[in-house]
Amino acid sequence: MKKDLLKLLDLTREDIEKILNVGDQMKYNQKHGLPHNYLQGKTLAMIFEKNSTRTRVSFEAGMYQLGGHPIFLSGKESQIGRGEPIEDTARVLSRYCDGIMIRTFAQEEVEQLAQYADIPVINGLTDFAHPCQVLADLMTIRERMTRLEGLKLCFIGDGNNMANSLIVGGLKCGMEVSVACPEGYDPDQRVLDFAQSKGCAKNFSLVRTPEEAARQADVVITDVWASMGQEEEAQKRRAAFAGFQVSDALMRLANPGAMVQHCLPAHRGEEITAEVFEAHAQEIFDEAENRLHAQKAVMYLLMNGGEG
Ligand code: CP
Ligand code: NVA
């Protein structure tokens, strides 16, 4: 494994499988009350420049369960908010802590933080990627379906951080991935280049109608139409994404027993109907829970000297 978890493009299939396996083990340990305080005496700095419920609480609780200590740093209240360069923050935190989790806007900021930090950096969401969420999604799909290889995953909606990470994570794990986005809202070009590269292209399609993507899917995934930082575009996006909704009618095109995943928060009546959300609530909240277990695996693997 590399020093950091910045985006799934940096991971091999073996790295992803190792994280999922350790995540399953973390979940087992916790459910059975088995001790797993592998990060005793270690500290994780958590920088948040955007809102969060799941990411903050799952990292904070996870660090505590591993015997370590999390420190919450709000972008606004720390010196980062007053313009201290990220490369200086990286070097300072490296003197105090054993790992850094960061949620921010530009992927480049996270990459720069990692370049200057001597300690592991974990991406807790950027505009480009949400790797921890997709590791939890893959863990949940594998848990329910017993495998990933050969399953069809479809993503309906905005070609955002979730779409980017799902495409890469799904393809790396041998899934078929179909993404339906309205024109002008495609996934990032670096991700499309990966998806269209040798070995992946046969398993990938980018289509313009949700129906094409959902047909015979085993997993149907969606996310908000306006991500954090795009609040001012919300109205324009509501018009652009009309019809890109996970509804009962769309689910009827998927395979019987198909799963639904949503990273949350969800906007019922926009990207997903209340009916579909409630019918699949169990697997959606399993997905939220698995953030905890998958991230404990990531922290253990990265902050424990890479020993699995
Ligand atoms: N899914 C997710 O990352 O949730 P939060 O924004 O609440 O952290
Ligand atoms: N695409 C969403 C994901 C939230 C977890 C956002 O970036 O706001």
The parts where pLDDT drops under 50 for at least 5 residues are none
> How far apart are the first and last residues' alpha carbons, in Å?
10 Å
Order of helices and strands: HEHEHEHEHEHEHEHEHHEHH
Q: Which cofactors or ions or other ligands sit in this model?
A: phosphoric acid mono(formamide)ester, norvaline
Number of strand segments: 9
The biggest sheet amounts to: 5 strands, parallel
Tally of alpha and pi helices? 12
Give structural notes.
The strands form 2 sheets. Strands 7-6-5-8-9 form a 5-stranded parallel β-sheet. Strands 2-1-3-4 form a 4-stranded parallel β-sheet, sandwiched between helices. 43% of the residues lie in helices and 14% in strands. The mean pLDDT is 97. α6 links the parallel β5 (152-156) and β6 (176-180). It has helices spanning 13-31, 54-65, 86-96, 107-116, 131-145, 161-172, 189-195, 210-214, 234-240, 248-251, 274-279, 281-303, and strands at 43-48, 69-74, 99-103, 121-123, 152-156, 176-180, 204-207, 219-222, 259-262. With 308 residues, the protein is of the alpha/beta class. The longest helix is centred in the last third of the chain and has 23 residues, at 281-303. The structure holds phosphoric acid mono(formamide)ester (CP) and norvaline.
